[in-house]
Amino acid sequence: MAIITELFYLPPIEYFAAIWDEDVIYLDLEENYQKQTYRNRTQVQLANKTETLSVPVIGGNKKIRTSQIKIDHDQKWLNVHLRGIQSAYGKAPYFEYYFPYFEKVYTKKFDLLADMNLDLLTVCLKMLQSKISVQKLDQCMPNGGNKDIRGLINAKKSYQERSIYKAIPYQQLFGLDFVPNLSIIDLLFCMGPESKSILTQSQKND
Fold it and tell me: Listing from the earlier edge strand, what are the strands of the sheet with 2-5?
């Protein structure tokens, strides 16, 4: 089974619930880039709030293909993201085990957002021990038989409006109330190998 999706930055848990049972992910990198989406932003949980980490891009307000969007390294975002992740999850049970893999991606300082996002997605799937194959969507390929969720996972709307993900609480570091659908790194750093089980339970089968 195969699914067609966009390429997101450290995607939310909902994204992984959507792709979890698939054999192949086809990533559409030739779509027109859209601002204020999961393509360049992710959410993590700090001590007092949920924080959105955004990767600054060049020319994101024009009709540019996702594959051509460049990261704006003139803005000092990289240290902000690394410090933010360390502040949020430095004391998480599996942080020391997983973080070096993510840090290695950041130190490459990619020119293109899609290249960095693809590397990070690959790391996430590896940490989840997933055998899903990741491929770039060929515009000539037939869509017959492939599930297409492009445009469905919208950062501006609640996951509750969609039939993809149901919140399965797990032990987070901060706060008394469980915060659902954060970046997949929240689940990985907090739950480690148990993340696979949480993802399976999080799938909404309406």
Answer: 133-136, 24-27, 2-5, 147-148
Size (the chain), residues? 206
- Tell me the pLDDT tens digit for each residue of 123-156: 999 999 999 999 999 865 656 678 999 999 999 9
* Pairwise CA distance, residues 154 & 173, whole Å: 26
Question: How would you classify residue 188: left for phi > 0, otherwise alpha for psi between -120 and 50, otherwise beta?
Answer: alpha
Single-letter residue type at 176: L
What is the signed CA dihedral for 140, 143, 147, 150, rounded to 10 degrees?
50
Please give the sequence-ordered ranges of beta strands (E in DSSP) within 39-198, or none if there are none. 41-45, 50-54, 57-58, 70-71, 133-136, 147-148
What pLDDT digit, counting tens, does each position of 39-86 carry?
999 999 998 899 999 999 998 777 899 999 999 999 999 999 999 999
